[in-house]
Amino acid sequence: MPGFNVQTSLRCVFSSTWPSSKRGVRGVRSGATCQCVAGSGPHCKDFRWSEDCCEGQVQHMHLTDSAVADTATVDFIVSLVHWFFPSFDYRWLLAEVRDSLPKELDFLNEGRNCEKAMENFKKLSPKLASQISVPHIYWEYSTQRILAMEYMDGVGVTDVGAIKALGLQPADVARLVSQTFSEMIFRHGFVHCDPHAANMMVRAKPGTKEPQLVLLDHGLYKSLDPAIQSNYAGLWKALVFADSKKIKEHCIGLGAGDDLYALFAAILTMRPWDKIVDQSIDHLVVPDTPEEREELQGYASQYFWEVSDLLSRLPRVVLLLLKTNDCLRAVDNALGAPVNTYLIVARTSSKAVSEMERKGSFSQVWKFWDKLDLEFRLLTWKATALLFGIKHFMKSLGFS
Q1: Where is the ABC1 atypical kinase-like domain positioned along the sequence (predicted)?
Q2: Sign of the torsion angle spanned by Cα atoms 60, 63, 317, 262
Q3: Same domain, 346 and 373
Q4: CA distance readout (Å), 271 to 159, 282, 325
Q5: Do residue 201 and residue 277 come from a single domain?
Q6: 142 and 160, same domain (yes or no)
Q7: Domain boundary residue, one of 126, 151, 176
């Protein structure tokens, strides 16, 4: 990371207002849109986690100009391919780039997203809020090209060895990640759409052995309109409980159509339809055997044109939810993919559906009934799984 570029960018944007460092700034990481530097500053007296309390997210020089050229290149390639192959229509990708890129390059917008996300947890998910942390933004030093914020410490969210070294359990981290994004998607309707492993860290919550999730890179967020949020929550509730009728209903509600709803469910879960509607507790867990990976790759090539058609039908925000889902699946798999993350999805999506559908004088009564119904179904589900496990164990010992 060339120090000249960092210092030049700081001088161009901040002039003399950038907080001085006794040791000078140092590079901590680099991403697609920015370099991140850390150093001491006037707010260090309030910092608990590290000597370095200020972090500057510095946009790469000339990135705005190159982004215009990159967008034009994508436009040309997508249009050319569509001209040669009319059924291969990825012009929706260009529309999404044009919508999202200016927002990602505006670091003030990223700061606002960061604060709004945390405020949502405090207001809508207060029991979880203490286990979520985002950087404090120093607005007086921030511009569209530099975001000045609190330096956040932690270990990688998929670094199992480092997580255990902190005295934390990977399964607890997996549950926290699942809870965090289930609340965001199904209840807040304001979603971090780039939750890959590099954008999340874990540390011990102060004074406890509980994990605290640090969310980084808040440039790409999407707000879900009520219809999409309701259908997406209903779809995941149906997927967890293998309710084929409701799966079809909500897939169609999200734009998949009567002909491609099963394909949409398969893309969302990375499971074939016969597994999706299987009543076993682990029917949505993606196996990691070479044979089944090869089977999934075969499906991708077999249904290439249908997938292309489906992606062109879906609202763009749903496409970003697919991306978010893939990122979270990768994190979950790295942490051991515990089955109980699907129980979290079931509870949160069911609660969201109940909150959206139960209105009027007796709404609290109906919500309580919905909760009882959900917990009874989950209890039955887990009891069935336990009995199956006992039967399998006895059989392995030679008992018929």
Answers
A1: 58-250
A2: negative
A3: no
A4: 26, 11, 14
A5: yes
A6: no
A7: 151
Domain count, the chain: 4
Q: pLDDT tens digits, residue range 208-253?
A: 989 999 999 999 999 999 999 999 999 999 998 889 999 999 999 9
Identify whether the C-beta of residue 192 lies closer than 8 Å to the C-beta of residue 350: no
Return the pLDDT at 10. 55
Q: Are residues 147 and 204 in the same domain?
A: no
Catalytic residues, which ones?
A: 194
Q: Residue 236's closest CA among 226, 215, 250?
A: 250
Residues 6+ apart with CB under 8 A from 250: 231, 232, 234, 235, 238
Pull the structure tokens for residue 393: 């164990």
Torsion over CA: 214, 220, 221, 227 (sign): negative
Same domain, 295 and 362: no
| C-beta of residue 199 within 8 angstroms of C-beta of residue 234 | no
93 with 161, same domain: the answer is no
Tens digit of pLDDT for each residue in 291-335?
Answer: 777 777 777 778 888 998 999 899 999 999 999 998 898 898 889
- Domain of residue 307 covers 155-356
